[in-house]
Design goal:
Length: 758
Amino acid sequence: MQNKKISKIIVTTIGLAVAFCFARPATFASSFTVVGPGGGGAMFHATISPHDAKEALVACDMTGSYITHDGGHSWRMFNLRGPVRFFVFDPVESRTIYAATEGLWRSTDDGVSWKLLWPQPSTIRGIRMSSDHADETIVAEPNPMGQVVALAIDPDDSKTLVAGAVKDGKAAVFLSSDNGKTWTKAQDLEEAPQQIWIDPQSNKSDRDLYIAGKMEITVRYRGKWQNRPGPKGVVFNDVSAGFSAQRGMTLYASSDAGIFLSKDGGVSWTSAALPGSGAKARAIATSLNHPESAYASYSHLQIDGKIWMGVARTRDSGRTWKLVWKEDKTSSPNIHDAWLSQEYGPEWGENPLGLGVADQDAELAYGTDFGRTMITADGGANWNAAYSRRVEGGGWTSTGLDVTTNYGYLFDPFNPGRRFIPTTDIGLFRSEDGGRSWIHSVRGVPEKWINTTYWVTFDPKVQGKMWGAMSATHDLPRPKMWRTTPVTKYRGGICVSVDGGRTWKPSNAGMPETAPTHILLDPSSPVGKRTLWAAAMGRGVYKSTDDGVTWALKNHGIVQNEPLAWRLARAEDGTLYVVIARRSENGSIGTGGDGALYKSTDGAESWTPVKLPAEVNGPNGLAIDPHDPNRLYLAAWTRATGMHGVGGGIFLSTDGGKNWKNVLHRDQHVYDVTIDPRNPDNLYASGFESSAWHSIDRGEHWNRISGYNFKWGHRVMPDPENPGMVYIATFGGGVWHGAASGDQRRPDIATPELEPGH
């Protein structure tokens, strides 16, 4: 996930438990499958279908969205080119679903494919994505609504939609009576809406509307608009509403001051205190058709001399609450988690960021947090992990709900069944069964270094011996990581294992605490006295000539102050290269914030600059042809300027970097280039524009891998066991495994103007 750091520190029935144990492997719409332990990143917006309680949706902070049709046993990821703000099921048409990113999307085939509803595709003038994360802004003209941030659908008429939208900082309510083809502005709002509800008991020709903001409820009651302020001085974290023919409407609101309740549409509010004292309420959700029942996510609750967090449940409209999820530093026996609590304890995921309750069944609820989705089907008596499951006789495997950021998929050269996934926020994972299941592989790594493993390298002659680059600083080389934290304060180092990654110990004498992001071994160096190099962000390049026991800084010739050494590459003739990441992110070039590329012909004792291509100052990866040391492939990150940026793509040099030509310009945010070790004519690349790429002619021409569409890609790695298959490491979407070519088009986006690669 983008902001969670490690330092921040479900069995409802026997039948459900068995179903989780034997859930089928997670499969995408194409032939790609997700590989890894599951979970690992923040999840939001759990939304259960009012037509089928086994169908639900979840979004994450890393752009992916997920749908289950079997009650959370398995999930399919789909991608709409950005994080989803909300989901809404059509209350009449069971196969129609809405989702909002930068635009408003609609699926009429139960989430298989999605068409852009707003802005209208015919008005799109382009997609701006020049920022560091390639965050997308749909540029459309005309676009009177702006971004849709909340939506409600008439409970009896699918053609009638109510949208809350924000444009140029101003919020308003818009109405559509023709299924979203046209919209009419109905009312200005004083603040952006969080939620919208339509009273199902109100007059069908003049519906009563309730729009929740952070400070007030805006209401259209019997045709008249009015603002109803919340409790004095209270800022709502979340608001939820339910309707009953007998009880009328009930509003629940969560805040840092606790829980508040309104039974008159927001005219008046009363406190609905939890047991104990001091509780802060984060998320809250009621059942639309059972408003007497609600769930609230709480923290800082003081009771019994301890401080608790979890979920509280009311069955009597907030008069009394029961702490159905109650944890401190130890897991509660009714929380049936997968691997996350076992490895990090319950504090890592925190109390739920979001809650969702089934309209038709108040006993069914979802809770999502910084690493998990948990489900209760018995009103909170038990909560079950929906993101990962235990493999019999092995470790953990993803159910498809995978939000991990990873940097590669690496095979032990002596044991093909042993693989490694270096990740952010959850450290290193290892498989001993050919990738079927995964176990945490950080025993012996200093606690403060566990957060991120950027890379591991193996001794090609010594079975079980390997080195890892571990750090407390995640998400490098994204510039957000040094905006507020000086690079000199990064923590981490090199660790060594002699038993195939089962245990580790620090091996960084001479290397001060830093954030090492890559480690490279010289295969021609003597066994037992291996030469290794490590790239350290903010310090430069370190070298060891004694198997990684001691290290010395080797920056002679590198002119950057606190050089952001990111990646290393070595040619067959021994020439060594280091990629220095760009420090600036404002689109400038020719300043001290430029990135750089250096080479060394004496094993890093001295460095000389390699001229970058024109307009390029963001090198991000380098690959070298194994048969021609002068043939270089450079992955470049765009400069933030204009609609799509400038200076990104893939560049080819056939003369050792003296001259370059741009061989891929359609993708301006390319993270890395890799070469198939079986055939150097085959090259792969990926980046942050929903695309992975394949070349079969030594990088001269590139085609998009049609089965892949996750927004933020990291690195494509050929599958050594299956020619034509690849693993794709991502920034928040797990590891994808599938074919590099063939007709596997993913149908997620059915609007041609927004298909990835266009």
